[in-house]
Specification:
There is one protein chain. The protein has 336 residues and is α+β, with helices and mostly antiparallel strands. It has 2 domains: 5-130, Histidine kinase-like ATPase, C-terminal domain (Heat Shock Protein 90, 2-Layer Sandwich), CATH 3.30.565; 139-332, PPM-type phosphatase domain (Phosphatase 2c, domain 1, 4-Layer Sandwich). Helices cover 26% and strands 32% of the residues. It has helices spanning 13-28, 33-54, 86-89, 103-110, 183-198, 204-214, 307-318, and strands spanning 5-9, 57-66, 69-78, 115-119, 123-130, 143-150, 160-167, 170-178, 221-229, 234-240, 244-249, 252-256, 273-276, 282-286, 325-332. The strands form 3 sheets. Strands 1-2-3-5-4 form a 5-stranded antiparallel β-sheet, sandwiched between helices. A hairpin with a 2-residue loop joins strand 7 (160-167) and strand 8 (170-178).
């Protein structure tokens, strides 16, 4: 499937650019005419809202696997004035900008997976899916997943990569950051995710060893993996290099420790750590394209939102802007 696409929204001319990019992705995903029409309407409305209410922001488009089908995720992110009365804003006809006010209400009807997060003075973020069938996790696979993975400005491909693979009762997530950026970094990241796909049952420590061997002919990468079972409310973690990983729940936070080194070149030690992953907890991994000095308690109510919206807000507020950036969020939905 195609990679994620970022469209900066700085003025009204870029509303059309966002719509064209969305239609190109819809065509690449073989969307039916009705679905493609919903995509065009949603992106146009979301981008117009950004220009109208915030002045500037970002649209991020991503393909999603949904069973045997595909869907498209649309994130609209801004750091404008925010929404004081979210309930009123979701009603048709409500407007704070002197317009017809169809905005959020119209968007919420386009998708059963509509979600919005806004704080007065701090901006607004919304997420919706179009196409496919909304996924309801099974009892033994109660994981909600969200991710943003984008290249450094000016690059065509991201030097980061990520992948989630199942193995029995367990799921494993891998995040890698190829050294530098551009095509060579992307090749290193792809070598790691390919190695993981070939060994989905590997423990995190074993996976670091596997990736270390697979990346020997590349420029190398930082990498980290977490393996977890939601029904057991626990997991294990191992990392090499500067991939950050933390678990957050009910005001608690645990930072998981990686060892120094570079997969494919220098790896003196691999150590596996256990962690608790209770119902409602967030497991967040990100590359160093995202600054690490943030806490979810700065965002009241965000933890209750879709994992994709959480990833979008963290990207919006903490992207360094000088490197590839990846943030992957997994939420334990068991018994919540």
């Amino acid at each position: 499937m195609p990679s994620q696409v970022l469209i900066p929204i700085d003025d009204r001319s870029q509303v059309g650019e966002a719509r064209r990019a969305a239609m190109e992705m819809a065509a690449s995903l073989a969307f039916e005419e009705t679905q493609a029409g919903k995509v065009a309407l949603a992106v146009t409305e979301a981008a117009t809202n950004i220009v109208k209410h915030a002045g500037n922001g970002k649209i991020v488009l991503a393909p999603l696997a949904r069973g045997a089908g595909v869907a498209m995720e649309i994130l609209a992110l801004d750091r404008g004035p925010g929404i004081t009365n979210l309930g009123a804003s979701l009603r048709d006809g409500y407007s704070t900008a002197g317009s017809m006010g169809g905005g959020l209400g119209a968007l919420s009807r386009l998708s059963p997976c509509f979600d919005v997060y806004s704080l007065p003075g701090q901006g607004t973020a919304l997420r919706l899916e179009i196409g496919g069938t909304p996924r309801t996790p099974a009892a033994d696979d109660a994981i909600e997943l969200g991710a943003v993975c984008l290249p450094k400005k000016g690059e065509e491909v991201a030097g980061d990569g990520w992948l989630v693979e199942p193995s029995g009762d367990y799921r494993t997530v891998l995040v890698v950051d190829g050294l530098g950026h551009g095509p060579n970094a992307a090749r290193a990241a792809r070598a790691a995710t390919d190695a993981f796909a070939a060994h989905p049952a590997a423990t995190p420590a074993a996976l670091m060893q596997i990736c270390h061997g697979a990346l020997a002919a590349t420029r190398g990468a930082a990498g980290a993996a977490a393996r977890f079972a939601t029904v057991k409310s626990q997991g294990t973690f191992a990392g090499i290099g500067n991939i950050s990983c933390r678990v957050e729940w009910s005001g608690e936070r645990r930072q998981l420790v990686s060892h120094s080194g570079t997969l494919g070149h220098v790896m003196r030690r691999v150590q596996e750590f256990e962690f608790s992953f209770p119902a409602g907890a967030l497991l967040i991994l990100h590359s160093d394209g995202l600054v690490s000095h943030w806490v979810t308690t700065d965002y009241p109510g965000l933890a209750s939102k879709h994992a994709g919206l959480i990833a979008g807000v963290l990207y919006r507020d903490h992207d360094r802007g000088s490197d590839d950036v990846t943030v992957v969020v997994l939420k334990n939905m068991a018994h919540t």
